[in-house]
Amino acid sequence: MSAPGRRTSEAGAVYTVEAAFAAILLISTLAIIVHLQPAGPQLGTEDLRVLSEDMLNILEYKGNLPGHPDLAHTVASQAEWDARAPELEADVRSMLPPGTRFYLSTPFGSAGDAPPEDAPRHVRPFQAFVPGANTIAECKLIIWRG
Predict the structure, then answer these.
(1) What is the pLDDT of residues 117-144, one digit of tens each?
(2) Is the predicted pLDDT of residue 105 greater than 90, yes or no?
(3) CB 142 within 8 A of CB 115
């Protein structure tokens, strides 16, 4: 009678070893999957170009709402720039995806973060009319990742 009981114990030990091996294999597989999952989507320079064009269109055509100054009013004069640039900067920062930054350069000053030399970027030059001086101002919007 002890022989059949012993076989059951041996079978139980085999099942225990198999279960432990299966658990180790499952945990190892899950660890590899978690470790090798792809990073978040990276913006390429083409995406930065599209983003800069979209951002410029939004800033030019959205109207002058409280807390959301439009670009035309902001670059109309030095006094307008000084008054509206901080709101414009905060507005642009709120619209950019994580990890993306901007730098806006105008004759009246700049807003945002200047990009380092090695940062992927797209420079979007544009012109703005300055009604007080009756001139065209050369400006640029740089969208960069860093």
Answers:
(1) 988 999 999 998 888 888 898 999 999 9
(2) yes
(3) yes
Residues 101 and 97: their CA atoms lie apart, in Å, by 8
Q: Tell me the CA distances in angstroms from 136 to 27, 38, 72, 76, one per residue in order.
A: 64, 46, 12, 10
- 130 and 138 in contact (C-beta within 8 Å)? no
* Residue 135 φ then ψ, to 5°: -130, 170
Residue 110 is classified by DSSP as E
Tokens found for residue 91:
């507005």
Q: Which residues contact 93 (CB under 8 A, 6 or more apart)?
A: 102, 112
Position 112 scores a pLDDT of 94
Q: What is the pLDDT of residues 39-66, one digit of tens each?
A: 555 556 788 999 999 998 888 877 666 6
Strand partners, 142: 103, 123
Dist. CA 9–CA 3, nearest whole Å = 10
Q: Which residues pair with 103 in a beta bridge?
A: 112, 142
User: Could you give the residue ranges of the DSSP H alpha helices within the chain?
Assistant: 2-35, 45-61, 71-74, 78-95
